[in-house]
Amino acid sequence: MSDKISFVRTEMLEQKAPPASTTGFVGWARANLFNGIGNSVLTLLSIYCVYYVLSGLIPWLVSPTWKAESLTQCREMIAAAGKHGHLACWGVVRERFIQLLFGFYPPEGYWRVILALVIVGAGLAPVLFDKAPRKLLIVTALFPFIVPFLLWGGLIWPYVGVLLGFVVGYFVLKYAADALGDLLALIAGVVSAFVWWIFLSGPIMGAIGSVLPIGLEFVESRSFGGLMLALTIGLTAILGSLPLGIVLALGRQSDLLIVKALCVGFIEFIRGVPLITLLFVASTLLNIFLPPSMEFDIIVRVIIMVTLFSAAYMAEVVRGGLAALPKGQYEAADALGLDYWKAQRLIIMPQALKISIPGIVSTFIGVFKDTTLVSVIGLLDPLGLSNAIRADQAWNGIVWELYGLIGVLFFVFCFSMSRYSMYLERKLQTGHK
Amino acid sequence: MSELSERTIDRSNMQVSDEVAIQINQMNKWYGQFHVLRDIDLTVQRGERIVIAGPSGSGKSTLIRCINRLEEHQQGQIIVDGTELTSDLKNIDKIRSEVGMCFQHFNLFPHLTILENCTLAPIWVRNTPKKEAEEIAMHFLEKVKIPEQANKYPGMLSGGQQQRVAIARSLCMKPRIMLFDEPTSALDPEMIKEVLDTMIELAEEGMTMLCVTHEMGFAREVANRVIFMDAGQIVEQNEPEEFFNNPQSERTKLFLSQILGH
Ligand SMILES: Nc1ncnc2c1ncn2[C@@H]1O[C@H](COP(=O)(O)OP(=O)(O)O)[C@@H](O)[C@H]1O
Ligand SMILES: [Mg+2]
Fold first, then answer.
1. 3-state secondary structure of B181
2. Same domain, A301 and A355
């Protein structure tokens, strides 16, 4: 018996290549596309669908109409080229592409818009990627003041005044903290910043401005338009809604009854009202209620509304992340002696935000796409512009080319955000679950 | 019951001093209508190693969680290191930084490395410079015998290793009192010993310890006092010898017969 069971290998086996039918394209196709009759049928059906769409789309895209100056010319060029059927009319893209990007911003100021975008990119880099140089954090701190100056222009001093308000508040907070305790110092800081903004900044910066008139040519909000307008509103709302949403989510969990009631009321009210309504409030109602001296720029009003709107959604997304954290994390932080704010900042928020990344980015994408709603109140975002372009005799009747282009522009931004969130999730993955 | 102490325990530093570490007077606590802790009186001297035992739901966790104010008591007094626990936040912070706590489920911070878990509180609560905090952390990680894991994340460690990290994390705050809430209950049998060994070493250094645990071997060998709780009350307390060999109350006898299995 025993000599049947016992076995000793005398020669070790060399490594062999796997059988050809499981590797390469053939193996891959067999495993993924044609494994079984049902799958083969589905694969063939899908191939047919893709073919059907492309066979319609590609001829439409390949259309010799780049140079056309109007829809009629497009049709003539198509006929002259001996083609027939419905083909794209690209002349409108050549003629109006710049306008779709910049709206009616004065062309000699395009560099300001581009520079602003570059500065925003530089400011966001250290927040988004930890490989970016840390020195860029200076840009991060300053871009909220530089970018509006670049976009709207005028004298530089009012923007400096706004910036100085934060500086004043910060120093009051820092030096009062020892004497007054954290909460009182915070209040003192906020109050002194507002005192500066409301009473001091105007006269002082005005006086400096009359001596040193440094600035850029002023550009009215009415000339903002196109992708640049969508980005101005969208990016500001995105950047503003996250911190505001975090504060609201924390407020909603607070033990302080008034704080909690305010936050819940705000969130539920905003979520219960369509964005369009809020935009109409921004565009018309505010004008009626606010005294004329307090009227402010339409774009600023829209930005505030969109930011508040997305902050309410953000608050709920963040609350979901907070709820998913085990209670033990709070207890461990407490037991180590961390106070509420430190525990939130170091333990709770990093984990809650990490859990909420997919929801946060979905909200970001939603906000960015919702900026197209401002066309309803007459702002010329890309969609609003496309209507304006179609109102032009020469291009009356063009639909797909413009919407397609706008779709591509938005897709680029939304898809980048989506990819970034996946990169971030992978980067923050620690340990196995 | 796991076998411990293949090694002999060094008792030279295990001395109970006259100084009072924790004083609890007539303390009561309710969860809503439920009277979870009833008339608790307990005095813990510095250097004591107390094991708290009792059936599940008897209020053991609630009692030790009251000592660092993870739970609030409604009546009576708790005085830790001469500071009374009131709603005054200053007192609570002071006490929490002097009392270390280990949980059944470790509660390590999964988004931070082992080293960062250990340096977090010293840096942010004690304002220790980062370099120094890291040295302290490495010292205690060596003590619990896992310095080589310092840069891993908690999710990559075994349960026993995680609990030892949790102990090291508490020790980095240089606490004078350590609370343990069933530190080995969530562990596989082969990992229980490594955690108990760590706790024994702490005891050998003279740490004041309150442990909720079902490890009766540990209670016999290390504790100087065993407290038996049932239905929110302290039913019996005694030296381990007496407690195990000569229990007085019927409830204690029943509990011991169940847990010791005879
Ligand atoms: N947060 C809470 N709310 C209400 N009841 C609780 C809460 N925590 C614990 N209890 C109850 O209090 C009793 C004591 O719990 P606990 O101290 O955890 O017991 P032990 O640790 O001895 O098992 C149990 O009956 C439990 O159901
Ligand atoms: Mg318990």
1. strand
2. yes
Tell me, in angstroms, the distance from the centre of ligand 1 to residue B62's CA. 6
pLDDT band at A3; cut points 50, 70, 90: low
Do the Cβ atoms of B124 and A350 come within 8 Å? no
B77 Cα to the center of ligand 1, angstroms:
20
Secondary structure (DSSP) of A242-274? HHHHHHHHHHHH-S-HHHHHHHHHHHHHHHTS-
| pLDDT number for residue A327 | 92
3 state SS for A166-189: HHHHHHHHHHHHHHHCHHHHHHHH
Claim to verify: residue A98 and residue A45 sit in the same structural domain: no
Please indicate whether residue B56, judged by its CB atom, sits closer than 6 Å to ligand 1. Answer: yes
Ligand 1 pocket check for B36: Cβ under 6 Å:
yes
Flag whether A138 is in a domain: no
The reply to whether A56 and A72 lie within a common domain is no
Which positions of chain B have pLDDT values less than 50? 1-2
Question: Do A51 and A84 reside in the same domain of the chain?
Answer: no
Asked, for residue A314, whether it belongs to a domain, the answer is yes
The pTM is what?
0.85
Q: What are phi and psi of A287, to 5 degrees?
A: -60, -35
B192: which 2 tokens?
């229980």
Asked, for residue A297, whether it belongs to a domain, the answer is yes
In a domain, A404, yes or no: yes
Domain that holds residue A80: 66-105+222-433
As a whole-number percent, the residues of chain A with pLDDT over 90 amount to: 42
Q: Which of A326, A342, A430 sits opposite B124 (nearest CB)?
A: A342
Q: Residues B73, B31: contact at Cβ < 8 Å?
A: no
Shortest distance between the Cα of B255 and any Cα of chain A, in A, equals: 29
State the distance from the centre of ligand 1 to the C-alpha of B259, rounded, in angstroms: 20
Do A399 and A344 fall into the same domain? yes
Q: What total number of domains does chain A contain?
A: 2
Same structural domain, A91 and A54: no
Q: In the structure encoding, which two tokens stand for residue B74, read together? A: 């409604």
Find the CATH number of the domain harbouring A263: 1.10.3720.10
pLDDT for the residue numbered A255: 86
Does residue B57 line the site of ligand 1, with CB under 6 A? yes
For A63-103, what is each residue's pLDDT tens digit?
Answer: 888 888 888 888 888 888 887 778 888 888 888 899 999 99
